Amino acid sequence: MFQKLFSRRRGARKPVASPPANRAERRGRPAVEALEDRLLLASGANLITEVRNFYVTNELIAPGSHEVDDGCITPGAHRLMRFDFLTKNVGNQDLTVGRPQDHPEWFVWSESHHHYHLTKFNDFHLLDMAGREVVPGFKQAFCLEDLEQFDPHAPPRTHSYSCANQGISVGWADIYDASLPCQFLAIDGVADGDYQLVATTNARHRLPETDYTDNTVVVNLHIQGNNVTRNPTNVAGITAVDAAASYTWDQDRTQHVVYRGADRHIYELWFNGAWHRNDLTYATGAPLAASNPAGYTWNVDGTEHVVYRGVDGDIHELWLHLRDWNHNDLTVAAGAAKAASDPAGYTWDVDRTQHVVYRGTDSHVYELWFNGAWHRNDLTAATGASLAAGNPVGHTWGVDRTQHVVYRGQDGNIYELWFNGAWHRNNLTAVANS
Question: What pTM was computed for the model?
Answer without folding.
Answer: 0.53
